[in-house]
Amino acid sequence: MKKEQESMKQDMIVILDLGSTENTVVAREIRSMGVYSEIHPHDIGVEGLKKLENVKGIILNGGENRVVDGVAVDVDPALYECGIPVIAIDHPTAKCTARYDEIPDKEALKAFVFGQCHAEANWNMKNFIEDQVELVRRQVGDRKVLLALSGGVDSSVVAALLLKAIGNQLVCVHVNHGLMRKNESESVVEVFKNQLHANLIYVDAVERFLGKLENVSDPEQKRKIIGGEFIRVFEEEARKLDGIDFLGQGTIYPDIIESGTKTAKMVKSHHNVGGLPEDLKFELVEPLKQLFKDEVRACGVELGLPHSMVYRQPFPGPGLGVRCLGAITRDRLEAVRESDAILRDEFEKAGLDQKVWQYFTVVPNFKSVGVKHNARSFEYMVIIRAINTIDAMSASVEQVPWDVLLKITDRILDEVENVNRVCYDLSPKPPATIEFE
Q1: What is the CATH number of the domain that holds 332?
Q2: I want to staple 227 with a disulfide (CB 3.0 to 4.6 A). Which of 108, 271, 326, 365 is the partner?
Q3: What is the pTM of this model?
């Protein structure tokens, strides 16, 4: 179903992607000034720009991916005549008011945004929430929304925003796909149903998901299977209810960016972007899709969600399915779940849970030789990952104290079955991604 055209009250600076790897850097710099900025494909054209409201300026952002199939991509020449101020970064032939060889400093960007574009600094969470509440009410009317509620930050903030917009027209569904962290589903039911009194439906689909994923090793296929099966579960739940026409999702801006544009290469498809089936029976409601991760948290705070919920550990939509590398087996899945619980417990004891943005364990699909109980063992390894980031587009590795790492290692080797080795991942993003798959 086609969604009604969205609109925003905030002024906007549009970044047209001409192959730069730093589009998000520019967008976030402009947003930090209190002006909304959004990234669009280079060939959006004048007609496409007209569909966007309150566009005050355009930035052409060229870079290393500008050449596609041997041809340097460019914008519609009519764009220069549309009456909107234009500047270019690393684009030697653009007919615009200013060109830069690299990203301009903050003062130069301010001069463009406020001096040439006359944009207002009206981008803030209060205005954003007011906009989204209005848009959701306009889109949904008196019908109902089915929300995929994992209990993670994104889905929790979506739930709060939709409750503000449509109240009891929201039906939350938590699907236990067998790929949750230890005791996570139980926690979701306790918090959302028993404490927040949300209209929550719990679905036990463990065997269904693990059956579909059996012998599937390709990461992209795993994500698509998980995303597609989620939709099927929601369709089945919706058929049991009256008036469900919409599916709420916690899609955020990095999900969309990393799933690729025409000139920005795909990093990985996200189950809620690239993994949706073509015959989707729902119209999507995605009120956070314009926000970076830190902005999602700021939105949650503005909505009044408790700190513990807003700043909880991020968790990927496909869950432990992308941390049990290759074809998922139940023994490795359990090793991921148990080792992750140990890691989170020890990080909390050491106060690292408030310092490190994201931390988790991974179990690859190969074994190594070791010694356990004075005998040869041939078992799996656990890889620990702990990173810090602002927007999830780049990340640095946390320098965890050695004594903490040793304690975690001892506990994993002692308490987790089928494991004889623990490693620590020292790879930043880029070149690595945050998750392994």
Answers
A1: 3.30.300.10
A2: 271
A3: 0.74
